């Protein structure tokens, strides 16, 4: 059976990445959405193995020492990471894996797994990103300006990504993501077994 | 307006390339199917500009001298070639261009236009290709064996292609071709105008 592939999806805060990925998962079978591990406490309603794999700090550090993470970071005193095991199990089962991680994490993953496909979800324009952040209503105007600045800085380092999906509408963005996943399975190295096996 | 891109599609005799490309053209707007130029005489029912651009040998040689072909070849005493002009006009008009040419022609095109995307349409198996050639009923068993041998030799040089589409069913093959074209438009260099324009 063919092995799945890993797709890293990044994008600025407010671009609508969660909505797009949710719609992608509904539209496409055989996709595994990687669940992060964290040392922070579960919030009300969060389930272990669904929202996060909750771990204590000692276990997390042990996993780091044993190179059990594709990437990890410390953020506001808590660890967050992508466990190798679940990704590898899904790929062995023939599933494609989606990792929803930011640029620094993506760099870590790709240094360990150079065949990872990197997709950046971009807004149709900066003005539209500002509009979406404002409409969300969760941030102060100052915070929104900070997020926009960060997005623009991040964008400068995003030119190494393999694909840019423009989230103008969820439908278009999901269509492009589906096309990218399908196209990546048509690459020669993915078809070697079929090619050589006859 | 965004410029179109050029996609070279090759594949062995009998793989069903014409059927797949016809279905692709019906399924996707904004696609221009490149019409070859030739010095051979029109056959009954063949229309100039539709089936071929019919030219005399003198004009064809002049076009060669003026570097007006993306690729050309002489075959059984006649010239065949892909005129640059029609490809460029379509691309400038924002259309993607499909070139249905064999491997030698594809090499010529890509040496002139390295951003050309090369797609190889492969059969699900050699046995299936043999079955299709036999079913077609146009060739003797000896000719079929010759075609199969040629297909296998060609296949060895096809590893430089960007994508392999398996024509198991027309629907799947067209789905993969559509995905490849869409995905190629998500490449960073294709989105630079959007990216830098805001």
Automatic annotation (TrEMBL), chains A, B:
<keyword id="KW-0963">Cytoplasm</keyword>
<keyword id="KW-0808">Transferase</keyword>
<dbReference type="InterPro" id="IPR008144">
    <property type="entry name" value="Guanylate_kin-like_dom"/>
</dbReference>
<dbReference type="GO" id="GO:0005829">
    <property type="term" value="C:cytosol"/>
</dbReference>
<protein>
    <recommendedName>
        <fullName>Guanylate kinase</fullName>
        <ecNumber>2.7.4.8</ecNumber>
    </recommendedName>
</protein>
<dbReference type="InterPro" id="IPR027417">
    <property type="entry name" value="P-loop_NTPase"/>
</dbReference>
<keyword id="KW-0067">ATP-binding</keyword>
<dbReference type="InterPro" id="IPR008145">
    <property type="entry name" value="GK/Ca_channel_bsu"/>
</dbReference>
<comment type="function">
    <text>Essential for recycling GMP and indirectly, cGMP.</text>
</comment>
<dbReference type="InterPro" id="IPR017665">
    <property type="entry name" value="Guanylate_kinase"/>
</dbReference>
<dbReference type="GO" id="GO:0005524">
    <property type="term" value="F:ATP binding"/>
</dbReference>
<dbReference type="GO" id="GO:0004385">
    <property type="term" value="F:GMP kinase activity"/>
</dbReference>
<keyword id="KW-0547">Nucleotide-binding</keyword>
<keyword id="KW-0418">Kinase</keyword>
<dbReference type="Pfam" id="PF00625">
    <property type="entry name" value="Guanylate_kin"/>
</dbReference>
<comment type="similarity">
    <text>Belongs to the guanylate kinase family.</text>
</comment>
<dbReference type="InterPro" id="IPR020590">
    <property type="entry name" value="Guanylate_kinase_CS"/>
</dbReference>
<feature type="binding site">
    <location>
        <begin position="11"/>
        <end position="18"/>
    </location>
    <ligand>
        <name>ATP</name>
    </ligand>
</feature>
<feature type="domain" description="Guanylate kinase-like">
    <location>
        <begin position="4"/>
        <end position="182"/>
    </location>
</feature>
